[in-house]
């Protein structure tokens, strides 16, 4: 399995999932169909399915055009607001990671030794999504119970290239984090920062470090859910 990031729009990511053994391609959030199709052409494999991380237009609005171009496409999603959805996913079918929206799904794929997760706008590198429909409790469960439980070397592919701004906020709230400072230097010279790993996020992402006394002191909260909520409110205004 090969994952190919496809930068689209201003700061979004779509992805190709290239299965060379089966000679097929899946796509994640193909919001710019033409760009995604062009990225897939060198492989000369059919595009067989779409994985939609949530219903927002900057992730799902390409589904209908893709379905027009490839009528046999399977379109997966977790909410009836997903355009052109053919395969609604239920509890137990997938990895529901609510918080940003109540349609948010993280797709975990394991292929031999490769382990990857596509997190949409739930988990970003050094950050998390805004709480448009969900609650701090839901985001905490998504990040710190569900995603944190994955193998630490699982590669993380996020929905937006927000890394530099997230790092700036993370340094503000977790200023004594030496690993974070090292990663800040690395990311400063990189335009495409995916993939991360679960371990990397546990090391540098303040929203996955809410159990630490330093962040509890910074926010004035002791309950990890309250810490996350306080951090998210700060980030919204940062």
Protein model, in words:
There is one protein chain. The longest helix is centred in the C-terminal third of the chain and has 14 residues, at 224-237. Helix 5 runs antiparallel to helix 6 (178-188). A hairpin with a 2-residue loop joins strand 8 and strand 9 (114-120). The model has no long low-confidence stretch (mean pLDDT 96). This protein has a six-stranded mixed beta sheet, covered by helices on one side. The protein is an alpha/beta fold and 238 residues long. It has helices spanning 33-40, 57-60, 63-69, 136-146, 163-173, 178-188, 198-204, 213-219, 224-237; strands at residues 2-8, 12-19, 24-28, 47-51, 74-77, 87-88, 95-96, 105-111, 114-120, 123-124, 127-128, 155-158, 196-197. The protein is built from nine helices and 13 strands. It starts with a strand and ends with a helix. The protein is globular and about 55 Å long. It folds into two domains: 1-89, Metallo-beta-lactamase, Chain A, CATH 3.60.15.10; 90-237, Metallo-beta-lactamase, Chain A (4-Layer Sandwich), CATH 3.60.15.
